[in-house]
Specification:
By secondary structure, the chain is of the alpha/beta class. It has twelve helices and 19 strands. The chain has helices at 41-48, 95-98, 107-111, 153-159, 162-173, 189-201, 213-221, 233-241, 256-264, 288-294, 308-320, 339-348, and strands spanning 3-5, 15-17, 21-22, 29-38, 57-58, 62-70, 82-85, 117-119, 122-126, 136-140, 144-146, 181-185, 205-209, 226-228, 246-251, 266-274, 297-300, 332-335, 354-357. The strands form four sheets. Strands 4, 6, 7, 10, 11, 18 and 19 form a seven-stranded mixed β-sheet that branches. A six-stranded parallel β-sheet has the order 14-13-12-15-16-17, with helices on both faces. It has a four-stranded mixed β-sheet with strand order 3-8-9-5, with no helix packed on it. Helix 12 links the parallel strand 18 (332-335) and strand 19. It starts with a strand and ends with a strand. 52% of the residues are buried.
Length: 358
């Protein structure tokens, strides 16, 4: 079958091959036919080594498709079911799951260290234990979440990661209050979803911050009240908050320098929400006096900061009601053979979200 493979960490191009096989099928597993997958910035971060991932590997974790085979002991799924891929399934039994913090379950991460593909030359890993830049994939049954018939595969794929992450940051983690002021730094797919979440919560002012003009223009269409380049943030802070700072600032880039900017633009007693996934050696620093004196809440948000199954249902409900726009987030559609063009479009900021149709 066809799949896009990264041979070594640090390479910036994928090779589309037709000699890949999905392996690992057995009890507790399902095999999926991938129909659509989104290109998420985390895929690029794994390729560059910012996010740890064994290689060679197949990127992709934001996918949707159909169940084509079911292993022994799997319940609640049938061949032919339409599903989205949950890259971080909850085991239900670990301490995090028992506390209701299923997004912190580590069971899914364990899958990342087990190859679920192979080629004649050896094993191939799937990113985050999935790997959706391929025609078929074998995953734990918990990774396959049934979706209603009225949800297109491309919409379900977005809900599988970026939309859930961004909406959840605003709704679950920060719990944006109606009438508040918000700034979102980084307006790719996750940042746009954060903006939509803040709008759903009733924020009065939502300032989108991004160096790419097309992304700033898109942010205005998705609910931002204004959009500025990074060098315009200080002026927006002065005009909107009289220099005090925003009630909520979301960092959706994953770098310490933008996290520091976000901190400095959060008002005293306000909330800084870290949404971007960054590198282990990139340290964010605050001094002990400002940490005490400013009383700013620093809240990291992992996969939307809440139960992902409930978050999926909420995203679908909001989409059906017209409260969030998911179709327009897909600015580019490509075939698997064009995956490297899609990567270039993401790196330059041209694409908001690219759907790879398989």
């Amino acid at each position: 079958m066809r799949a896009a493979v990264l041979h070594e960490i640090g390479q910036d191009k994928l090779e589309v091959l037709d000699d890949v096989e999905a392996v690992g099928f057995g009890p507790g597993k399902v095999k999926l036919r991938v129909r659509a997958t989104g290109l998420c910035h985390s895929d690029v971060s794994a390729m560059s080594g910012v996010l740890p991932q064994p290689a060679p590997f197949i990127p992709g974790h934001e996918g949707a498709g159909e169940v084509i085979d079911i292993g022994a002991g799997v319940t609640g799924l049938s061949v032919g079911d339409r599903v989205l891929v949950c890259w971080l399934p909850a085991c239900g039994t670990c301490p995090a799951c028992k506390r209701g913090q299923t997004q912190l379950c580590l069971a899914g991460f364990m899958n990342a260290g087990t190859p679920n593909f192979k080629r004649p030359g050896g094993d191939v890993f799937g990113f985050a234990g999935t790997g959706t830049f391929t025609e078929e994939v074998v995953v734990d049954a918990g990774c396959a979440v049934p979706i209603p018939d009225d949800v297109p595969f491309e919409i379900a794929a977005l809900i599988g990661c970026g939309v859930t992450t961004g909406l959840g940051a605003a709704i679950n983690t920060a719990r944006v209050e109606a009438g508040s002021s918000v700034a979102v730094i980084g307006c790719g797919g996750v940042g746009i979803s954060t903006i939509q979440g803040a709008r759903v919560q009733g924020a009065a002012q939502i300032v989108a911050v991004d160096p790419v003009e097309s992304r700033r223009e898109a942010a205005l269409r998705f609910g931002a009240t204004e959009a500025v380049a990074p060098d315009g943030l200080a002026d927006a802070k002065q005009r909107i908050t009289a220099g005090e700072g925003f009630d909520y600032v979301f960092e959706v880039v994953g770098k310490s320098v933008t996290a520091r900017t976000a901190y400095e633009n959060t008002r005293r007693g306000g909330t800084l929400c870290i949404v971007g996934a960054g590198a282990m050696d990139d340290n964010f620093q605050v001094n002990m006096f400002e940490l005490f004196f400013d009383e700013k809440r620093i809240l990291p948000s992992m996969y939307g900061g809440g139960d992902v199954l409930r978050s999926y249902e909420r995203a679908i409900a909001l989409w059906r009601a017209g409260r969030i726009d998911l179709e327009s987030m897909i600015t580019h559609r490509v075939q698997l053979a064009e995956i490297n063009d899609a990567l270039d479009q993401m790196r330059t900021g041209e694409a908001l979200r690219t759907c790879i149709e398989l």
